[in-house]
Give the backbone structure.
Amino acid sequence: MEDKATFNRTYWRFLWSSILIALSGCLGTVVDAIIVGHLIGEDGVSAINLTRPVVQVMFTLNMLLATGTGMLVGIELGRKNHQGVAYYFTLAMATCLVVGLIFTAGGIAIPDVVTGWLCTNEGIRPLTLDYLRVMMMGAPAYMVMWALTTMANVDGSPRLVSIAILIDNAVNLSLDLVFIQWLGWGIAGSSTATVVGHLVGIAIMCRHFHYKDNHLRLTLRPTTQERLSFSILCSSLGKIINQGAPLAVACGTLALLFIACNHAVSLVQGRVGLFALAVCMNLLMIYNLFLAGVERTIQSLGSIEVGRGDNEAFQLILRKSFRFITISMLLVCAIVWVFPEAIARFFGAEGEATISETASALRAFALSFIMWCYLDTLMVVYKLYGHHKMALFISFALSLTVIPTLWVIAHLAPQLLWYSYLIAYALEALFILLFHHIGHLKFELPTEAKP
């Protein structure tokens, strides 16, 4: 392992860069909701939240392709296999672009159909459609931006990634006001600003390819001795999917959870409940800001140490990561518990009933998301240690334990609806502990790490 001072500098450089990367998704959603809440109203905030399952599907596919490839790129960098790095990078970028174009086609052809699946409230549906249409058409920018930042971060350019993300969000924030208020584009202006911000970020990220130590070049040759064939392509995609599957499954099932939660809350609480839920989902983005930063750091630096087979360095990364995420989550939770009414008003809440219900929901979700962050991070740890079945179990259980719990409480004890997540995550933690001991699992790297 490198000396401790150098290691610490590298770790914090990657962590803060990864947190800024997470801002691309966090601010693009949270600030949109805040501005829309004040300029359009509470229904606008609810409309953005109702489109979240589609965003989650895009994020799921990005996790599967870009994050899965990022782990493989890190492992190949640890092995000093630069040809493998370039090959996996090319494969991921091409696949992400194709996926984005498929969403664009959907945004042109069937946005009203997708809106009908997501929104059952006639009053909110037009706003949901306007926001969703632009978001789907701009999907290639979303997919490529996240893939580029993931790869460049692993390849040693966290500073450039940070700059690109900051400018991306500055453009987004500025254009929100221009498009919504000055040009009168309404809620569609919000999603348009996000897409334009990503395009600017992509342009800045291209600077990485001019660096002397850049390993991200375009090639479809898996090795210098062989050309790409259909069997090799299938095998490579299989490796990418295997690496990204736990995170992708967790994100994919989260999309189902969003839909189930929207319907349950609409049934029990109506439009007031939908607004409260939308604010809580924006709170989730704040937690995810720290969670995604920690997970990207573990994936970037951790996968390199896995490739080297350095268990001591990998465990040090995990200790620093869990310490950081614990402190940051507790601080966010404390702020939410002290100022829930102020947060509700910040998102445009009006009326005592709405403010009171949103405050109750915020306090419950602030606790629930702490459990969620620990479980999600633990899933990445199991994956990198080679315990693939346990990682896959956690990824499925993160949402699939909540959905039945949510519906049972909605029908039998609706007054406890906001605590459904916390109850479900506590049950999942018990199952993980049980399965870990039954399987006699150990957190040790194999002698020869394999992707």
